[in-house]
Amino acid sequence: RAKDIGRNSFQLFTPAMNAHSQERSLIQSHLRLALVHNELELNYQAQINGVTGKVMGVEALLRWYNPILGQVSPAQFIPMAEELGFITEIDHWVLEQACKQRNLWLDQGLDCGRIAVNISALHFHQGNLVASVESVLAQSQLPAELLEIEVTEGCFIKQMDKATDILGQLKNMGVKVALDDFGTGFSSLSYLTSLPIDTLKIDASFIAKLPHNFRESQITSAIITLAQNLNLDIVAEGVETDAQKIFLIERGCVIMQGYLYNKPVCAKTLPKIIQDA
Ligand code: C2E
Ligand code: MG
Ligand code: MG
Ligand code: MG
């Protein structure tokens, strides 16, 4: 153990750390090739109006299956893609696939509302999101109103002018913007007054504690009131139980995304979920 080695000496590498970093570099080496090897796929999760049952939108969620590593969670590989400098490439691929798929469903008459696509904060600041969205919409023929970009509070910690400009341009194109994982970031709330945001998504960590935990219940209620007063749409993420659904509806949040309704599914399965909704 490090403390047994004595003062002024550091043990830089423990066997556990070594295994961990070896696993990381293994994953990273495969991640570099995931796109060209066709290992990425999108899943889709419906957002449901809990009162009417209507499907309001669908979120595209990235999946990576590698023959050696198996299924790797986006919570693990998205941060790696950011570090390795190809998150912009991955997000652009997701945007392309999602818009193409949504336009196909439009042609088939499948009524599933907007398609929501997650954009990493790194991509938001380093890439050219506006140009990327423009070219993908032109290429896919998808009406801009059917696209929603999901960003996180991390996009607004620095370079507020640039962020305002990017969101303004998206708005002018007719694209909607949702603020994902709302309430978990460390940014100030003042950006809500200056940025053209359409939707707040209450983070699943709050929803998980409803309705019995006092603090999370209070915070959730306050977020709903805030959204209503600012005239923003509101979506609850990670709704798993009827009790959570009832709590949310009573307080005025009717759109929900979660296992209570459906899990993310592949493009082939989604139409069945929409028709059964
Ligand atoms: P997110 O955007 O907040 O997505 C919601 C996550 O909650 C998804 O996890 C979804 O599968 C999961 N979820 C939905 N309903 C429930 C529920 O009822 N209970 C529980 N426990 N979980 C639920 P997933 O697909 O593993 O994605 C994790 C995160 O990875 C996403 O969080 C998003 O931040 C990121 N991500 C996923 N796809 C992309 C992508 O294409 N680009 C970028 N930049 N990030 C992505
Ligand atoms: Mg999201
Ligand atoms: Mg989220
Ligand atoms: Mg997230």
TrEMBL record:
<dbReference type="GO" id="GO:0071111">
    <property type="term" value="F:cyclic-guanylate-specific phosphodiesterase activity"/>
</dbReference>
<protein>
    <recommendedName>
        <fullName>cyclic-guanylate-specific phosphodiesterase</fullName>
        <ecNumber>3.1.4.52</ecNumber>
    </recommendedName>
</protein>
<dbReference type="GO" id="GO:0071732">
    <property type="term" value="P:cellular response to nitric oxide"/>
</dbReference>
<keyword id="KW-0973">c-di-GMP</keyword>
<feature type="domain" description="EAL">
    <location>
        <begin position="24"/>
        <end position="277"/>
    </location>
</feature>
